[in-house]
Amino acid sequence: MTPVRLRFVPCGGLTSFARRTIVIAATAILVASPSASSAHDIPNDVKLQAFVKPAGTQLQLLVRVPLAAMNEVDFPKRGPGYLDLANAEAALRNAATLWLADNIEIYEGEVELARPRIADIRISLPSDRSFGSYESALAHVTGPRLPDDMELYWNQQLMDVLFEYTIGSDGSAFSIHPRLSRLGLRVLTTLQFLPPTGVSRALEFQGDPGLVRLDPSWHQAALQFTKLGFLHILDGTDHLLFILCLVIPFRRLGPLILLVTSFTVAHSITLIASAFGYAPTALWFPPLVETLIAISILYMALENIIGTNVQRRWMITFVFGLVHGFGFSFVLRETLQFAGPHLLTALLSFNVGVELGQLLVIALLVPTLNLLFRLIPERIGTIVLSALVAHTAWHWVLERGERLSQFPWPTLDTAFLASAMRWLMLILSLGCVLLLVNAALRRMRWLPSNDKMPGEPSGD
Q1: Quick one: DSSP state of residue 153?
Q2: Among 123-137, 154-168, 224-238, 247-261, which stretch is predicted with the lowest mean pLDDT?
Q3: How far apart are the C-alpha atoms of 152 and 84, rounded to whole Å?
Q4: Do the strands 201-206 and 117-124 form a parallel or antiparallel pair, or are they unpaired?
Q5: How far is CA 48 from CA 67, 121, 178, 188, 204, in A?
Q6: Rounded CA gap, 15 and 12, in Å?
C-alpha cells in the first residue's frame, strides 16, 4: 500500500479567494450563533399592571412591567449579570420613556395629552405584591428604594413607574391607547381606572386593543359595538355561508324578511342570555357550539339540494339562530368590558351591527345569484352551490368534532341534571311558541302554505 502523505499549507499560502471565503464563513457563523442574539430575545409572555387616576389638574399613570420585556436597553450590570442599582437610574428612565411613555397615548376628550413627566421609578422584586391596589402601589413607587448592594439578576426584576400628565379637569372623559404589543409575543395588560366618582373600572386585554374609552358614554358604546357586530359578520366565514344558504333558494323580499327576522330574534335571545350569565360556562361548551354551527350550515346546504319551503325554513332558521347567538357571545366575552355601565346598549348595538352586515351581504348576494341563474338553470345552480357549501361544512364538522371529542363528558350529577331539565323546558317552550307563531302567520296569510324552492315541483 502506498503511504498517504499530508501536506499542511500555512495561511499565507492560501489564495486570495480562499482567504476571503474563510473570513466570510467565520463571520456568518458568529452572526448566526444563538449566543450573539440571546440578549435581544423577545419574551413569550409579558404581564403589565397599570392604574389610571385623574385628580384635579393631574392624571397619574402607574405601570409595572418586567425588565426582561425591554431587552434592547443596555442596563448597567456588575458581576455575573447583576443589575447595578447604584447607576441604573438613567437607563431606567430611558427605558420608561422609549418603551412606555412613547407607546401609551392618553386622551382627554378627543385631545391627546402632552408627554408625561416621570415622577418616580423603582426596581421591584418579582415577589413584590404592592400592585394589588392603587394606594399600596403608589406608596411603594414613592417609598424607599432597594439597597444598592443587592445582588439581583437584571432580567428577573420588575420596573415600576409613576407618570404624571397635566389635564384640564378630572371630570373629563379619558381614553387610552396602549401600543405595547411589541414588549412580548403575548402581552396581557390589566388596567384599573379610578375616576373621582369612586366607582373604579377594571379592564384586561391582550396586545394592542386600540383606543379604550375608560368611561364611555352610551353613544360611544353604541357606536363601538355596532361597528364590532358589522365587522364580525363580514369576517365570519361560517356565518356568511349560513346566510348564503338562506338566500340561495329564497331571493324574494317576503321570504327573506321572514327568514332574516327569524334568525335575528333567535340569535338576540341567546346572545343576551349569555351576556347575563345564563349560558353554560364549561370548557366543552364553546367547541360544542362551533360544531353545531358547522352542522347548521351542512343541514341548510343539504336541505337546499333536497328541497324546502318557507314554512319549514323559517322555523329551522330560528333554531339554528339560537346556536349562532352563542357563537356571537364568544366574540363579546372579552369586549363587553369596554362598554362600561352600558351593557344592554352594547348588546343591542352589536345586534344592530350584525343586522347591518347581514343586510349588506344579502343586498350583494341577491343580484349576484339572479345574474348567475340567468346563465345556468336555477335548480342546477342551487344544487352545485349548495354542494360546495356542504363540502366545506362537512370538513368543519369533522375538525370541530375532533376538538370537541378531546373534552370529557359532563358528570351526570344532580346539578347537571337540574341544568339539563331547565334547558329542556326552555326548548319545549320555544318549540310551542314557534308552532303558535307559524299558525298565526298562516292564518294572516303572511306565510304561503306551499312556497317551494324555485324550479321544484309543486307536488299537486
Answers
A1: B
A2: 247-261
A3: 8
A4: unpaired
A5: 11, 15, 11, 6, 10
A6: 8
CA-to-CA separations, 289 to 177, 219, 294, 353, in angstroms, rounded: 33, 31, 9, 21
Decide if 203 contacts 335 (C-beta within 8 A). Answer: no
**Amino acid found at 41:** D
- Could you tell me if 245 and 389 are in contact, meaning their C-beta atoms sit under 8 angstroms apart? yes
Which of 98, 70, 246 minimizes the C-alpha distance to 155? 70
Residue type, 295: I
Instruction: Say how many CA atoms lie within 13 Å of 237 toward its Cβ.
Output: 5
Q: How far apart are CA 250 and CA 9, in angstroms?
A: 86
Q: What is the pTM of this model?
A: 0.74
Q: Residues 132-143: pLDDT tens digits?
A: 999 999 999 999
Q: What is d(CA 198, CA 40) in angstroms, rounded to the nearest whole number? A: 42
Cβ-Cβ contacts under 8 Å for 167 (sequence gap 6 or more): 54, 57, 58, 59, 108, 113
Distance CA 112, CA 412 (A): 56
**Contact between 335 and 228 (Cβ < 8 Å):** yes
